[in-house]
Specification:
The protein contains 11 helices and 13 strands. The mean pLDDT is 95. The chain folds into 2 domains: 20-30 and 248-337, Alpha-Beta Complex (Aspartate Aminotransferase, domain 1); 41-244, 3-Layer(aba) Sandwich (Aspartate Aminotransferase, domain 2). With 342 residues, the chain is α/β, with parallel strands linked by helices.
């Protein structure tokens, strides 16, 4: 059997837990008390039996929490699975997909995995989006991340694009809570699949729970493409607990993240991208060498070379100030070692 060439794997470093993890944009501000509140006990029967099909109970709770119409939420195994379902739907249209770069690297990987060869559009130097070009492109779907990773900016043209696009808008809203958007808001356009996650602001990355909010007709199509039991009973109950009891903790953590960002950003001289997210991206020469130096000092960061507007970038997750103080000292030491101003 001859296998196809698969050259689009996502670079996922396995760094363990002994170093300070500033590469995955996990929420580092939530207290242990939050996790004790949301961690569920699971009954024997819940381990023995499958969950309800499509995790409808959790989907209904998410809809009620955000005031969404019934049937508009599709629960997924993390946001990546939500992106996969939306891109599979795009693949079935036969009209292709456009991805606006620089953005989340997994978007292009998932597109290739479902058989799409995405057309790349880029943000302008001012991070504006060329809505005219996308609307005229003729593709069946467009992927946009807002707030965007790694540039951390809100894509202000999203609604205009939704109104003008003759196709599906796949809106990756993984960091929406950091921008104050707690509830999905664009499903009414009828052509938007808004992908959300409980891995970022909600701090539940280990549970692998996400969802897509979309008009019923799109949600129904996504459910057709989804496996019938996307997440475990434990994950579903933990997210239900978070929705019922955890939001005050999450909102407080989002506020503390913003304060940390306001403290950190002025202290870094390098050109940077920062905005309503829980990370900062630095534009530095030889980002790989800087990351290697930081790793030696116990800090794991993300390198993002080769992207439009980000040819050599280093991204780090915001953390409580005691951690940030140590990180900034390490960053200065790393820059001296490789003779780069940061």
């Amino acid at each position: 059997m001859r296998l196809p060439e698969l050259d689009f794997a996502y670079d996922e470093p396995d760094v363990g837990y002994s170093k300070i993890r500033l590469h995955f944009n996990e929420n580092l501000f939530l207290p242990e008390e939050y996790y004790r509140e949301v961690a569920p006990s699971v009954e024997t029967w819940e381990l023995r039996h499958y969950t309800d099909p499509s995790n409808k109970r959790l989907a209904t709770k998410i809809e009620a929490r955000h005031g969404l119409p019934q049937g508009t939420v599709v629960v997924t195994a993390g946001a990546d699975e939500g992106l996969r379902l939306a891109m599979q739907l795009a693949a079935h249209t036969g009209r292709g997909l456009a991805i606006v770069e620089p953005t989340y690297g997994m978007a292009r990987v998932i597109a290739r995995q479902v058989g799409l060869r995405p057309v790349v559009h880029t943000y302008r130097e001012d991070l504006g989006l060329d809505v005219d070009a996308l609307a005229r492109s003729g593709v069946g779907a467009v992927y946009v991340c807002s707030p965007n990773n790694p540039t951390a900016h809100l894509v202000k043209e999203v609604e205009e694009l939704a109104a003008r696009l003759d196709g599906l808008l796949i809106l990756d809203a993984a960091y929406a809570e950091y921008a104050g958007y707690w509830a999905p808001r664009l499903y009414e356009y009828g052509n938007v699949a808004e992908v959300r996650t409980f891995s970022k602001a909600w701090g539940l990355a280990g549970l692998r729970v996400g969802y897509v909010a979309a008009h019923r007709k799109i949600a129904e199509a996504l459910r057709v493409l989804s496996p019938p039991h996307p997440i475990s009973s434990y994950s579903a109950k933990a997210v239900e607990n978070a929705l019922e009891k955890g939001e005050p903790y999450v909102r407080r953590a989002v506020e503390e993240t913003a304060k940390a960002r306001e403290w950190v950003v002025p202290k870094i001289n390098a050109e940077k991208y920062s905005g309503p997210t829980n990370f900062v991206t630095l534009k530095v020469p030889n980002a790989e060498a800087a990351a290697s130096e930081l790793d030696k000092m116990g800090f794991v960061v993300r390198t993002l070379g080769g992207k439009p507007l980000c040819p050599s970038c280093l991204r780090f997750t915001l953390a409580p100030l005691p951690v940030m103080e140590k990180f900034l000292n390490a960053l200065k030491a790393a820059s001296k070692n490789i003779k780069v101003a940061v």
